[in-house]
Write the structure tokens for this entry.
Amino acid sequence: MASIAIDGPAGAGKSTIAKLVAKRMGYIYVDTGAMYRAIAHFLVTNNIDIENEEELVKACESISVSIQYENDAQQVYLNGENVTPFLRTEETGNMASKSSAKAPVRAALLDLQRDMAKEYDVVMDGRDIGTNVLPNAEVKIYLTASSKERANRRYKELIAKGESADFDKIEADIIERDERDMNRDIAPLKQAENAVLVDSSDMNIEEVVVAIMSLAEEQIK
């Protein structure tokens, strides 16, 4: 089995790019961020205090997260319920960033993610795929973009959905999440030593996909 690991900060376009690369290469796309968001959704809706380790461990022990594909679209199930529609809220995203730094949360998902890579050819995106989850991945990409460009993309996404959006707040949240993700004690966000840096600030989606597929074709024999 072959693995493509795509890491990078919030809003870099990892999920969009990973989905397209996986589809074109016939690989399974594993959205680890969605898995963390599923746990975050549980924590938020159940008012779990993530600073209370005993409470957090107990919560994680009661959580089951699985990925299924329906009509070629990834669906995330939490304890048997499809929670995919609830994963993209700002509240869930911020909780995912905070809770993913906690050991019980990471342990709950690590084995599942690695098992998927043993069973299928995968494209997996997240914060620590190349450094921690799949350190032996054949292809490692660090996908990033400026905070202003990432905020601009998120702003346009929210406006397109008819939601209100504050550009400055979105960018401030992104910068704060970067700081938190890069400085957490457990598996911080960083570029793996053998990862290829792809800065998409001035690239469109197709250009990024083509660049990553070219790298994959060179490195996966």
